Amino acid sequence: MKKEHQTTGRGGALVRVGSLSFFLLHRLSSILSPLSPSPLSHSSPTQLELHHAITGAKITERFKTSDSLEVIHLRHTQHQFLYLEDNRIHLLDPETYEQVEMDASTISGGEASLALLQDGMPVTVQSLEGVGPLAFSLPDQFSYQVEADDFKGKQGAKGVGQKTVELAGGRLRVRVPEFIKVGEWIIVELPEGKYVGRGKLDAPA
């Protein structure tokens, strides 16, 4: 079993790496990893690598043993992307059919991820009770239709020819095997933009 690092939050609550988020100086962040020393030590300051839930930026903070953290639990729900207008994202809750409007800057990964949004794409919305939606993120994989393949490339490491294709209205370029044709659907790993294989993923129920 993988050992789970932890440190003490407000009221003696445990703050676990990657599993909880907390308010730190009015910033909503999650713990990525302990840096030094071990968070299990109660005699020395703890340095943690954090992930800002809104901007996606990585930050490093140092905590004294007397510092307290407010541990919070975020609710994760699936929504569908509808459209982007005036820097506002419009999403649909598939269960209630209610529309949710969020600022485009709340997407995890920033502008690079924003360019990958497609009509009907499933996204995960992170919400806090009493506050509402805080951020949203792309799926791990998504299917795109190849729109152009005019960009020839070098031969792949295994001897298979590769080329660059355009997806998402030209906003995304992906290296694919040379046998992939315009009009085909391919599965892409996000947000890296890495080719996974042929096919079209089923939309979530």
Automatic annotation (TrEMBL):
Biological process terms in GO annotation: peptide biosynthetic process
Domain (Elongation factor P C-terminal) ranges: 146-198
UniProt-recorded Gene Ontology molecular function terms: translation elongation factor activity
Transmembrane regions listed in the UniProt entry: none
Domain called Translation elongation factor P/YeiP central: residue spans: 76-134
This protein's GO CC annotations: cytoplasm
Protein name: Uncharacterized protein
Native organism: Piptocephalis cylindrospora
Classification lineage: Eukaryota, Fungi, Fungi incertae sedis, Zoopagomycota, Zoopagomycotina
